[in-house]
Amino acid sequence: MSEPGFGPDADFRRAAAIVAIVAFVLAVGCSITGLMAVRFDTGVMSNPDLLLGAGHAAAGLWRASLLLDLFGYYLMLVPLILVLRAESRPRAGSWSDLFAFCLLAYSLVGAMGAAMLAMSTPPMMDAYTAAGVADRQLLQTAFSAQFNDVYRGLWNTLEAFLGGVGWLGFGWLMLARNRWIAILTLALGLAELADSAGMISSQDWLFSAGLNVYLALATIWPLVMGIRLLGRRPLVADG
User: Fold this and answer.
1) Can you tell me the distance from the alpha carbon of 69 to that of 215, in angstroms, rounded to the nearest whole number?
2) Closest Cα partner for 234 from 189, 173, 183, 186?
3) What is the pLDDT of residues 31-78, one digit of tens each?
4) Is the four-CA dihedral 23, 27, 32, 38 of positive or negative sign?
5) Can you say whether residue 178 is alpha, beta or left, with left for phi > 0 and alpha for psi between -120 and 50 degrees?
6) Fewer Cβ in 10 A, N or C end of the chain?
């Protein structure tokens, strides 16, 4: 049996590592452009009207942030997830399939939400600037509805639950052999479940705590994993 990092899958693992490191860069860019769009006012999460009235320049930054989110936090994790599944399946069997499914579903649901908002909310922000009072009320209603559908429904309920299960699962599989990476992965999973549980139960403190920890850990997790893969070191197996 070939060691991880060598053999027929070596090229795919190397590509997954590079893509994961690029995902870290894009995730950082997503956070920076998103904060610039809302003028570093994190209250937008509870009051999306602040974003709607931010103006044309903010609309461009917001669109850029969402497109970076689409790739940095979601789609570019897919190769890394497949590497985790391939490496853990000989030992974990169907558990590995389940955890990979959850993280792949997390990536798909999250990417769908980011794509929807990237294409729909910036035009609403542009239109709001020139709209009259009646049209602004309609735009506020539509903007808030879509914002809540994606942020509260797709992202911080469904996606967060799926990601939490997937990261907790792979963290558990890593725990005996790569302890510090396992702890990082477990913490990420717990943060996602806290995010989802807080949203479902309307406990804002739990939701906010989970979300903030998730945003920090989900940014650095692909970087850590990518560097390990580039060093031809296994993620789940010994080493």
Assistant:
1) 11
2) 173
3) 999 988 877 776 666 677 778 877 788 899 999 999 999 999 999 999
4) positive
5) beta
6) N
Taking alpha carbons only, the member of 217, 231, 157 closest to residue 181 is: 217
List, in sequence order, every beta strand (DSSP E) within 4-83.
none
Distance between CA atoms of residues 171 and 181, nearest Å? 8
Are 146 and 84 in contact by the 8 Å Cβ rule? The answer is no
- At 139-163, the pLDDT tens digits run 888 988 998 899 999 999 999 999 9
DSSP, res 3: P
Rounded Cα–Cα distance for residues 115 and 31 (Å) = 16
User: Using an 8 Å Cβ cutoff, are 235 and 91 in contact?
Assistant: no
Q: What angle do CA 87, 88, 92 make, to 5 degrees?
A: 155
Burial class (CB in 10 A: 0-12, 13-18, 19+), 205: exposed
